[in-house]
Design brief:
Helices cover 44% and strands 17% of the residues. By secondary structure, it is an alpha/beta fold. Strands 3-2-1-4-5-6-7 form a 7-stranded parallel β-sheet, with helices on both faces.
Length: 230
């Protein structure tokens, strides 16, 4: 992705707290955004913003993703992709179920792969682009719910593999690793001490926008920790 003028960026999971921060940061830099998420009031709300185009899709479903990208094509050729879509469900090994495991792999890994599969040929035809994925601190260290952390570890490794595969097409792929993000949903369970150390969505959005930009041209295949103090 270059910064020579307005660019089209696709953001999945755009209606969430981090998604809204990313949309705001990208719009502040003059980029048009295709906002992909599940249909509903939250997506309608972000889609009402100037320069943001809402596209509804079940991102864990390959055919639904393909249809969503056909809608993106009507907006232009994207040079950036941010894969924020994902999910979290607690589980220990003892209480792990097939439903929880399939949900975590579908929402966290499948959504990433299907969108990258659609984005890559479009970016290659445009001369290159940049993809930013979202792993987790728990993907690489510490204790965590097994299904969620394992699926996020797969996101990290998939991002590294895609960086190598897509390098000849001038497509960069980098993965940010958040710890605890300061969102309203997380504040519902965080202690005041943890809330004070959590990272703001806006701060993570700034890092993501940097990784999309030409300033990060030499960077691909990186795991970028955005832990803050959490």
């Amino acid at each position: 992705m270059t910064d020579g003028g307005p660019q089209l960026v696709v953001v999945t999971g755009a209606a969430g707290a981090l998604g809204r921060a990313v949309l705001a940061e990208l719009r502040s830099r003059g980029h048009e955004v295709a906002a992909l998420d599940l249909a509903g009031d939250h997506l309608d709300e972000v889609g009402a913003q100037d320069g943001v185009h809402a596209v509804a899709a079940d991102l864990a479903d390959r055919s639904a993703v393909s249809a969503a990208w056909a809608e993106v094509d009507r907006l232009g050729t994207p040079t950036g992709l941010v894969t924020l879509a994902g999910g979290f469900r607690p589980s220990t090994l003892a209480d792990l179920t097939e439903d929880v495991l399939e949900s975590m792999w579908g929402s966290n890994l499948s959504s990433l792969l299907w969108c990258c599969q659609e984005a890559a040929p479009r970016m290659a035809a445009a001369g290159g682009g940049a993809i930013v994925t979202v792993g987790s601190k728990t993907a690489v260290t510490g204790g965590a719910p097994v299904a969620h952390a394992a699926s996020k570890a797969a996101v990290v490794r998939a991002s590294e593999l895609l960086a190598e595969e897509l390098r000849p097409d001038r497509i960069r792929v980098n993965c940010v690793l958040p710890s605890v993000i300061d969102t309203p949903a997380n504040r519902a369970w965080m202690s005041p001490e943890l809330a004070a150390r959590a990272v703001s969505p806006a701060a993570i959005a700034t890092v993501i926008a940097f990784l999309l930009s030409s300033d990060a041209a030499p960077v691909s295949g990186a795991r970028v920790p955005v832990y803050g103090d959490a």
